[in-house]
Design a protein that fits this description.
By secondary structure, the protein is of the alpha+beta class. The protein has a single domain (about 35-200), classed as NADH Oxidase, CATH 3.40.109.10. The chain is built from eight helices and six strands. It has helices at about 20-30, 45-55, 75-95, 100-105, 115-120, 145-165, 180, 215-220; strands at about 70-75, 125-130, 130-135, 140, 165-170, 190-200. The strands form two sheets. The protein has a four-stranded antiparallel sheet. The chain has a two-stranded antiparallel ribbon with strand order 3-4. Helix 2 (about 45-55) packs across helix 6. The protein is globular and about 55 Å long. It starts with 18 loop residues before the first helix and ends with a helix.
Length: about 220
């Protein structure tokens, strides 16, 4: 496709003296976001999930190739199969002596091989990264900055989930090859993450350690 410049189609108009307040308000809003493992049985409409994923699709990507695909799963039987396969991988991980350092790092988070959130949450969103594209003739097309692009889109997705009053959990069983067949996705896509999505249960808890965020002076340098 040739380069064709068009006028900037939309702008967010904020008075300069209001920018700090707007930035602070958004920061305060995002401070209320937490990774949650305890989900309510309250349903979430398909329309809400569609709009959340549509928001993720607005993320920037390398060469605008948009190398992502999101599979939204509501079916309880399918969620149960994913949970069973994920827990099998997790049990192998937790029983492996080669991961002692990683398991030690997870101790303060309180995780183990049991993943009830994968069936408790009303929705699972499985994120796939398109490692390479496929042309109509079956030949491969190189994608650029795939991990970076999918990471940005995932950030958009998590923010949109929080903005809709929902909670989620970033779940990454490893390996996750079972997700391709379960989600009917082609071999050129790699499963990156499962996000259980829904409303937090009334008795939801989070690990105390998860509230420890690095201060600004540790994550920012000004030159």
């Amino acid at each position: 496709m040739p380069y064709v410049p068009i006028p900037l189609p939309s702008r967010v108009e904020i008075e300069k003296n209001e920018a700090l307040k707007v930035a602070h308000d958004y920061y305060t809003h995002m401070c209320k976001r937490h990774s949650v493992r305890n989900f309510s049985k309250e349903p979430v409409s398909t329309e809400v999930i569609e709009k959340i994923i549509e928001t993720a699709g607005r993320a920037p990507s390398g060469a605008n190739q948009q190398p992502w695909h999101f599979v939204a799963i509501k079916d309880q039987e399918k969620k149960a199969k994913i949970r069973s396969a994920a827990e099998k991988e997790e049990k192998a991980f937790y029983s492996s002596g080669g991961h002692d350092e990683w398991i030690s790092a997870l101790e303060s988070i309180g995780t183990d091989a049991s993943k009830p959130h994968l069936t408790d949450a009303p929705w699972l969103i499985v994120i796939f990264a398109e490692r390479y594209g496929l042309n109509k003739d079956g030949s491969r097309r190189k994608n650029y900055y795939v991990n970076e692009s999918v990471g940005i889109a995932t950030g958009f997705l998590i923010s949109a989930i929080h903005n809709a009053g929902l909670v989620c959990l970033t779940h990454t069983p490893n390996p996750m090859k079972f997700l391709n067949s379960m989600c009917l996705r082609p071999i050129n896509e790699k499963p990156i993450m499962i996000l259980p999505v829904g409303y937090a249960s009334a008795d939801a808890t989070i690990p105390a350690a998860s509230t420890n965020k690095k201060p600004l002076d540790e994550i920012m340098s000004v030159i």
